[in-house]
Specification:
The complex is a heterodimer of chains A (114) and B (109). By secondary structure, chain A is mostly beta strands. Chain A has no helices and 11 strands. In chain A, strand 4 and strand 5 form a beta hairpin. Chain A starts with a strand and ends with a strand. Chain B has a single domain, classed as Immunoglobulin-like. Helices cover 0% and strands 60% of the residues of chain B. In chain B, strands 2, 4, 5, 9, 10 and 11 form a 6-stranded mixed sheet that branches. In chain B, a hairpin with a 4-residue loop joins strand 7 and strand 8. Classes of the chains: A mainly beta (114), B mainly beta (109). At the A-B interface, strand 4, strand 5, strand 9 and strand 10 of A face strand 4, strand 5 and strand 9 of B.
Amino acid sequence: EAQVTQNPRYLITVTGKKLTVTCSQNMNHEYMSWYRQDPGLGLRQIYYSMNVEVTDKGDVPEGYKVSRKEKRNFPLILESPSPNQTSLYFCASSSGSGSDNEQFFGPGTRLTVL
Amino acid sequence: GIQVEQSPPDLILQEGANSTLRCNFSDSVNNLQWFHQNPWGQLINLFYIPSGTKQNGRLSATTVATERYSLLYISSSQTTDSGVYFCAVTETSGSRLTFGEGTQLTVNP
């Protein structure tokens, strides 16, 4: 089954404790991205990657890091989480080019930073 | 950047009713998608429809790219249709999806 997976689905952590949210897709997509969703602010892009070893900042990259060492994986790293990073996070992927660049989303990760 | 406006912001229906949700966007796009966010927070792809008309069961969508709007039709609504419906677009010059603020749909039994 074609899908985007994220882990963990739920996480409660404390300020300053480094964490990684994994994202993996099995559709051989070149384009992957991370979004966060917050009440009143909607969904905003954090980082994106057009291909392996190519990443770029989205609208709200501060406090996050990403890497794209393999085509299928695009982990989101919070080096020193803070309470304002409490949010619902989504990973997405698409073929990224041409006339068919439909984006597919993972199930989401609910992160709470105390 | 591109602006995406959805209407209405809230909609309450009785089961069995029909509804139309609208999405206006401010610039040319090469991608337009409709999503349903269920009560568990998951974003479900409904339609990928940068232009034209598509149907999937009780749902259908139409995008008129030249006039910069898209419509999502829900017929014979069911309680399981409740949730937030998002329209999202990608500008022709970019790759990021820009989301509208959504329509909160409540279907009562």
